[in-house]
Amino acid sequence: MADPEKAEASHGAVTNATSATGPDAAPVGSRTNITFSDQRIQFVSPARPPRAPRAGSTDNAAARPKAPAIPQVLTSEEQSRRQRQQEHEKKHVDIDEHLMAPEEVAAKYSTRINLAKPAESLGLTTQQAEDKLREHGRNVLTPPKKRHPLLKYLDYLTSLFNLLLITYLGAILIAVANINAFIEFYQQRKSQALLESFLNMIPAKCMCLRDGKLAQIEAAQLVPGDVVFVRMGDKTPADVLVFWASDCKVDNSSLTGESEPQERTRENDMQNPLEAHNVLFNSTLVVSGEAYGIVIRTGDATVLGQIAHLTAGEKKVTSPLTVEIGNFVKIIATIAIITALIFFGISFPVNNNNVSLAINFAIGIVSFKAWVPEGLPATVTLLLTIAAKRMAKQNVLVKDLQGVETLGAITMLATDKTGTLTRNQMKVANIWTCGELYEASYGALQEKKVASLDKPGVSEILHISSLCSRAKFDRTDVPVSSREVLGDATETGLIRYAADQLSNFDILAEKFPKVFELPFSSETKWHMTIHQKAHNDGALTLYIKGAPERVWRLCNRVLVGPDGASEPLTDQHKQAYDEVYEQLASRGHRVLGFAQLLLPGDQYPEDFVFDKKEKNYPLGDFVFVGLASLQDPPKHGVREAIGACRAAGIKVIMVTGDHPLTAEAIGRKINLMLGETKAMVAKRTKRPLDQIADNEYKAVVIHGERIDSLTDAEWDSIFMKDEIIFARTSPKHKLEIVRRAQSMGHIVGVTGDGVNDSPALKAADLGIAMNKSGSDVSKEAASMILLDDNFASTVRGIAEGRLIFTNLKKSIKYTISHSMPEVIPNLLYVIVPIPLPLSAILILVIDLGFELIAALSFAWDPPETKEGLMRLPPRKPVTPETTDIFRRRALRRNRAHFDAEAGVVVAPENQTKLQAFLHRLRQLFTKDYWADKFEHTGAEVLVDGSLLSWAYLEIGVLQSVGALTAFFLVLHTRGISMSDARAMQRGAGPPTNYWTRDAQPYNGIDGPAQADILAEAQSMYYWAVMTMQMFNLFACKTRLTLPFGRYMFANRKTFYCILAGASLATFIVYTPGVEVVFGTSRSLLPLYWLVPMAFGCVIIAYATLRMLITRHTNPVKWNPEIPGLQMFPTIRTVLSRSSSQHRPA
Q1: Label partner for 386 (CA 20 to 30 A): which of 93, 710, 713, 792?
Q2: Structural domain contains residue 452
Q3: Do residues 776 and 721 share a domain?
Q4: How many Å apart are CA 805 and CA 803, to the nearest integer?
């Protein structure tokens, strides 16, 4: 068994050491590897000699959880795709300007820059720009190829179900097929139009220096060599090499997943372009400062363009519902073809070898009109459309109708962290001052100390946060919660917290004006300000904040009490500082240090003039005030949403580009990770890591460095764990994770909002993008968009998806139940023979009339129980056994075989399409194929054996008996017994001389009377099928409860649909003049209705008995309870709100 955490110990040691160097030196989430080589530390497990097992050790094969025996099977398409991807990577790894001096880059692109005075740079000439524009093209991404609307319509028209309808060349069925296609096409076009309204944004503008003049131009006109100017609030228009910057920070979260703003300077010492400090990437937001740079890549050549290319190369996965409907169509088509052959063989001699009549009867009436439920495609499409509209009201846009059900079928949900699970907003979490560690605010069930103004040191930290800052609110005339902050995420978090705590925050800057400032820089790692704030010894106060270790080194005293009371630093203080710092950093928090100095009035009078050049300001002997930690908090409702997903049996994994410690810390707050990792078990049991058995831990945190080197067995072992986090991942890694999960049989959903998520969004079975925070590329790649960016909407979508699958299954179960009452009378008509109880036109009226209307009522059926659907396991659970079955079938499809001794999959090379087709054909006649086909996988499919048995062998036969009873009752009442009917149908010549208006008399019944009697009997048969289907409608509604009681009245639209269907049937049977078209009779007495109603009661009784038996033989399997799930809301409690109202000023 492979060990999925073989490098966890060394990895944990390195990351903890990194955290101890301070957030500014190595901010959380500062590195992400894509496809570029770098020189970072590689977390490789040291080689160990094999050890003998200890006595009583659980580290053995029997104790470990099972894993699939067959490794991943790669199709020929997958192999060629991987080869193309490798070639593409080699072709595009060409960014090396970050390693060059700005002068060299300027010379390379024939542009002119001024390093000392960047605003006086000349840039390119207008002629140069025009020439380069013709050479390189516009600075836009190549839009994805789109199929013409007509071709899309033809795709829907030529679906398997519609082809089955068109096979019978009847004008009505062709019209039905076109209606089915139009409904699906129209819904898809509506969703696409709404999406395009999101993507069609105003063309971006940018500031560019050309011919020495700074002007605003369209970003699309930029070319390599242009000199651009960006400042806070701008989006970077291309990939830019920085040659001058002032406090410039960019938000790379949409590109790399890093939640912390990244500083950009002229200097760089990183090899990896994505980690370079002197490169601004296309589409990233400048959150503070300003910079001048040289454009080095435009359009598809940018990093953003390369990721978009990776996305475009992905093929959309066929949805599970599409596959299952296709399988159902194949079943129906097989039954129809077999029936056609049988009926042709029977009707040919019966009809005196009349070939034409036999073929028309076998193919036209029986095989297609009776077996194929013509209204089912429209029913399925309308059910999905209604569900999609319901989801749209909950802010979930469905681009593909099949995606509605796919969301309910997912077995694994892979989600990004930044912006999806978290708010991408830094928030103060802890404060440590005067030797006490405080929580920043109240939380649910919290018993720890909470910071308040009456606690010593807290006021000082709040004042430093407020005054020693470049961030500010956009306005002051609205509540703090309604204001926007201009500044980077860290300072935003600090001043929001300070503004919440300080009642006089808005006047602090005026009350204590700033007289001097040294802004944050990468060299000092701190920010200093001096204010006119009086104290007992003078009029000026110095504040400083920054990287804790840098601030600590500038201090010789530490704050210990109120009113600035301090004492000299000691080893005890240093030890306490180290412990708290390590504790906060290990939670994945960003930690800042705070210090102050009450400037003595004799040295620094109130009118003292500070000068940066003369450095006549203090640079040491400060008083250390304390530490504050910030975190990117989870979004409201995320914890409950993930808990609900896990309770529903869905494996939720985090795939993020952020730091492993940060990812795990967030995961443990939101129900994503509850159990122990291997390192935690080793620490708890005080055993070495190599003695921890694979079954002793259920949680893993995998670093992106290891993904490329994982073996097939290690991948399988990882996915068998309950709780998984992948950190420091690249877009390529996310793709690999999705494909590896799909190779095990998982139906994978991927949520994300960044450009880096888009390849995985498209490759997944269901991609879910965010609307507000999502990039255009991610929205285009996804199948579903959360319009309000609320991850909790995913849970509602899953419940809706499961409900629509349940309702679809009930609708199909109901719809195809009438096939037997349509087939059996035709069979008797040929074999016995008897008069035809149901004409071809009435078959179509059943399918496209009452049945279609009644089947639609299932779309509004609520769940049978409040939480029942979300307590059931996924309908296609993934286990080692099911994975082996899934891969065994993949082996068969790809003409491959598994070499058990070598442990590898051997696939044939360079097989032609003809060879592949012949292989599939030969498989149909092998024992293994059919054994595989009927092997139980524990999966619930749309059309299973139980449903077919109900529709064709149980209720279908019962309805046939009931309808035939009513049919012969009408004949008997009108003077024609069953034997008379058989004799009349046999007739005196082919095919018969009776039952028509010009027929010869029979026992005194003339031709017109015979035709009227048959029309009345056929009307009764039609009415009987409709009536019994009304009862069957209720019998098909329940799965967990009995088919009577309150649930039968939960959906009022059921009764509206029954009324509409019955009205249509009444119109067809009893409306004068209509009987000529449909061959019905207005003389049908309502007394005959009692027969089908009695059989309807038998159907309800049979359904009840069947369900009671099923409960004992095959009880419903609920998901086991997951210990430790925290399902309380992720919002502040009433206690915190009430306490904030009594906050001291």
Answers
A1: 792
A2: yes
A3: yes
A4: 5
Give catalytic residue positions.
416
**Residue 356: Cβ-neighbour burial (10 angstroms; 0-12, 13-18, 19+):** exposed
pLDDT mean across residues, the chain: 78
State both tokens at 178: 């076109």
With CA atoms as reference, report the closest residue to 755 among 417, 308, 88. 308
Number of domains in the chain: 5
According to the per-residue pLDDT averaged within each range, which of 313-317, 826-830, 1058-1062 is highest?
Answer: 1058-1062
**What average pLDDT score do residues 763-789 get?**
80
**Contacts of range 705-711, beta carbons closer than 8 Å, 24 or more positions apart:** 705/33, 705/40, 705/42, 705/43, 706/7, 706/43, 707/733, 707/736, 707/737, 708/733, 711/2
- Residue 332's φ and ψ, nearest 5 degrees, are -60, -45
Residues 454 and 431 placed together within one structural domain of the fold: yes
* Nearest-angstrom CA–CA distance, 968 and 978: 7
Q: Which of 385, 382, 191, 387 is nearest to 797 (CA)?
A: 387
Task: Give the separation between CA 648 and CA 569, rounded to whole angstroms.
Answer: 54
Query: With bands split at pLDDT 50, 70 and 90, how would you rate the model's confidence at 1061?
Result: confident
- Alpha carbons 412 and 164: distance in angstroms, whole number: 34
Task: Verify that 527 and 431 share a domain, yes or no.
Answer: yes
Residue 703, pLDDT score:
86
In terms of residues, how long is the chain?
1145
Residue 400 falls in which region: left (phi positive, over 0), alpha (psi -120 to 50) or beta: beta
Query: Contact at 8 Å (CB) between 1020 and 1082?
Result: no
Q: What CATH number corresponds to the domain at position 777?
A: 3.40.50.1000
* pLDDT tens profile 432-478: 999 999 988 875 445 568 888 889 999 999 999 999 998 888 888 88
Reported confidence tier of residue 903, pLDDT bands at 50, 70, 90: low
Q: How far apart are CA 1088 and CA 840, in angstroms?
A: 23
Percent of the chain predicted with pLDDT > 90: 26
Cα distances (Å, whole numbers) of residue 191 to 382, 397, 803, 859 = 15, 7, 21, 20
| Cross-strand bridge partners of residue 594 | 545, 626
Residue 52 CB-density burial (10 A; 0-12 exposed, 13-18 middle, 19+ buried): exposed
Distances (CA, A) of 195 to 187, 200, 235: 13, 9, 22
Distance CA 723, CA 714 (A): 15
